[in-house]
């Protein structure tokens, strides 16, 4: 998996916006002004949010991910050469977590989630 393909996954999320807030070549993906995925300058990993520190620790302990530097312990860094399905799942999950934490008014202003992307109720 390449940086370009992960960026395509991020760009496909409804209302996703790209920025490079620190300059120097970061790919920072946001929804509603909040980061849901981040690729550093080196471009070897993508940092994504998990549902909690326990899940993050499990992913780290099983070798799926590493601790994401500079971010809360609920964030992990997945190698860009991880299985494409795993990367896609983690990007979508991070996006949904961040989107769901936005104020309801801001959520309502975003493009709707497709039926495929909606979490199970």
TrEMBL record:
InterPro entries: YjbR-like_sf, YjbR/MT2646/Rv2570-like. Pfam families: YjbR (PF04237). GO terms for molecular function: DNA binding. SUPFAM superfamilies: YjbR-like. Gene3D superfamilies: 3.90.1150.30. Keywords: DNA-binding. This is Putative DNA-binding protein (MmcQ/YjbR family). It comes from Paracoccus lutimaris.
